[in-house]
C-alpha cells in the first residue's frame, strides 16, 4: 500500500478539493481526523464521507485523540459537526481508551459499520507447522489486563462522568485559546481548537525559546514543526 498525503488549508483542515484530486481507481480508503493531534482541528468528515459514497471507497475516521470527547460534546452543550456512523459514508472509527477514556495505556478500539469490514482485519496463516494460526488483530498473544482495566474505567466514569469531564476540558481549552487569540501579544493560534488541543506560534519571536523558558518553569509542552509552534492539551 502507498499513502497519499493531502494538504491542509490554513485552518489545518484537510483540503477536500485536493483530496478529490488525489483519488484514483486504486484508492482503497479515505481518512479524516477528528481531531488531528498537532492543532486539534476536526476535518470536514461529512465532505469526506460524501466522497466515499460518490466513489464507493471506505472512509475511516481517526478519532484516537477525540474519541472520548467529541461523542459527549453535544450533551455537554457544545455544537459539533457529525463525524460518526450517522454519516452514511463513514465505515470505521478508531479511538484510544487510554487518552480521554482515562484507562491505562495499551487499550484502543476500532469500530466498523458492517461485520464485512471486520473480516478483512483477520489474519490466517495455514502453513504454520504448529497448525492453522489465526488472529483477529495484528498482534497475536495479548495480555487481557489492559482490556479489563479499560472496562473497569468505563464503568467507573459512566456516561455522566464523561459528559462532565468533557465539559470541563472544552471550557479549559477554549479559555486558553481565547487568551492566546485576544490577550497575549505576539502569539497567534494555529488551526482551529475544536476540541481539547490549543496550538500556537509567533510571528514576532522564536517560539522555541518560549517553550524552553516554560519548560524551565515546570511546564510539559509539545513542540511543533512546519510550522514551528507549541501545542497544549487540556486534560
UniProtKB/TrEMBL annotation:
<dbReference type="GO" id="GO:0016020">
    <property type="term" value="C:membrane"/>
</dbReference>
<dbReference type="GO" id="GO:0030149">
    <property type="term" value="P:sphingolipid catabolic process"/>
</dbReference>
<dbReference type="InterPro" id="IPR015421">
    <property type="entry name" value="PyrdxlP-dep_Trfase_major"/>
</dbReference>
<dbReference type="GO" id="GO:0005783">
    <property type="term" value="C:endoplasmic reticulum"/>
</dbReference>
<dbReference type="Pfam" id="PF00282">
    <property type="entry name" value="Pyridoxal_deC"/>
</dbReference>
<dbReference type="GO" id="GO:0030170">
    <property type="term" value="F:pyridoxal phosphate binding"/>
</dbReference>
<dbReference type="GO" id="GO:0019752">
    <property type="term" value="P:carboxylic acid metabolic process"/>
</dbReference>
<dbReference type="GO" id="GO:0008117">
    <property type="term" value="F:sphinganine-1-phosphate aldolase activity"/>
</dbReference>
<dbReference type="InterPro" id="IPR050477">
    <property type="entry name" value="GrpII_AminoAcid_Decarb"/>
</dbReference>
<comment type="similarity">
    <text>Belongs to the group II decarboxylase family. Sphingosine-1-phosphate lyase subfamily.</text>
</comment>
<dbReference type="InterPro" id="IPR015424">
    <property type="entry name" value="PyrdxlP-dep_Trfase"/>
</dbReference>
<feature type="modified residue" description="N6-(pyridoxal phosphate)lysine">
    <location>
        <position position="99"/>
    </location>
</feature>
<keyword id="KW-0663">Pyridoxal phosphate</keyword>
<keyword id="KW-0456">Lyase</keyword>
<protein>
    <recommendedName>
        <fullName>sphinganine-1-phosphate aldolase</fullName>
        <ecNumber>4.1.2.27</ecNumber>
    </recommendedName>
</protein>
<dbReference type="InterPro" id="IPR015422">
    <property type="entry name" value="PyrdxlP-dep_Trfase_small"/>
</dbReference>
<dbReference type="InterPro" id="IPR002129">
    <property type="entry name" value="PyrdxlP-dep_de-COase"/>
</dbReference>
